[in-house]
Amino acid sequence: MVTSVTLTGTPSSLLAGDAHTFNCMTSPSQPPACITWYIRTSGYVRELDRDDCNKDSSYTVATSRRLSFTASAADNGAELYCNASNSVTNVPVQSQVYELKVNYTPEITCDQSHVTVFQGQQVNISCKVKANPIARVTWAKNRLNNAFTATRDPTQRDVILSTSKIEITKAMTSGVYEIEATNNAGSSRAEVEFTVIDNQKIPKNLKTISCINNQATLVWPSGINSSLVEYYKLEYKGNGEEWKQELIRNPGRVKLVETTLNDLQSGVLYQFRLQPDSDIALPEYAKAECTMENAGLSTAEMFGVGFAVGFVVLAILVVAVACFLRRRAKKKLALN
Fold first, then answer.
1. Which end of the chain is less crowded, N or C, counting CB atoms within 10 A of the terminal residue's CB?
2. Tens-digit pLDDT profile for residues 177-194
3. Are 223 and 264 in contact (CB under 8 A)?
């Protein structure tokens, strides 16, 4: 009968990717015991290795079985143990539980990999760093350190949240910001690309050149290279309405950009505001407004009216010709 099981070869920590050998030893028993290895992760138990149990039952011996195990970052905090049993033992006997402490290279995940920003703005870039032991985090642009904050995520044992606050100044140019996380298992880097736009290139003048027949045509000077900003964001609303949005592609290499909004309501005062489409909203917009007028019929309406009038005229001519022919026929009949 198996009375005890001992797990040995348990280091204080493991390094992810390196193989380590554990040993499971039972008390002497007849017949010899069979050993099974298990790992438990977040309540889920998985079998790792099992003895074949084909042993000579005439001897009373202690049984041992080794397990070569290569840990990964996902195994940090998991529980490793072994069970032993024979035909006499009704319930398997379990060893002590060894909690895996796996040291691994930091893993970095950032909210964004590219942002378009404007001078004078403050940008917060957040990244999640998963590491054990907890990593030291630094932010840099062109190898120059930037101020950052790092806090522990209370919901996860080996995760920190790092935020770098970056002030976009006039001297700042487009480039790549780099976050580096380091611990005794290694270091990792991630990059966030910045496109910095000069405020002088932000459109400041928005004009309505017509606001009639349910259509508004707006125009503004183009100052942004299309390689930097692909779209303008044009927002509009009538009295008491929510803001609606249209994305206008930047044509590039033109002095003026023109667009027309359709299906607007007659007699309503409309407000318009414009800025380049970017990850961060500007504090100021180029603005305009106009009251939708109905000065006449649209081209389609005029065509419809013309068609109707033409049809009426044609009908009148047909009736007149029919009356003329009828009178002529009566007169000819009277002469006969």
1. C
2. 888 899 999 999 998 888
3. no
Rounded-to-10 torsion of CA 318, 324, 328, 330: 90
CA distance 239 to 262: 17
What is the pLDDT, as a whole number, of residue 82?
96
CA distances (Å), origin 253, targets 17, 105, 195, 257? 54, 48, 19, 10
Examine the domain organization and report whether 10 and 96 are in the same domain: yes
- Tell me if 172 sits within 8 A of 196, measured CB to CB: yes
Range of the domain at 181: 104-197
Does residue 247 lie in a domain region? yes
Q: Are residue 81 and residue 9 in the same domain, yes or no? A: yes
Task: Give me the CATH number covering residue 258.
Answer: 2.60.40.10
Percent of the chain with pLDDT over 90: 40
pTM of the model: 0.60
Average confidence (pLDDT) over 225-245: 81
Of 197, 216, 249, which residue constitutes the final position of a domain?
A: 197
Q: How many residues does the chain have?
A: 336
| Structural domain count, the chain | 3
Most confident of 76-85, 140-149, 153-162, 288-297: 76-85
Binning pLDDT at 50, 70 and 90, where does residue 226 land? very low
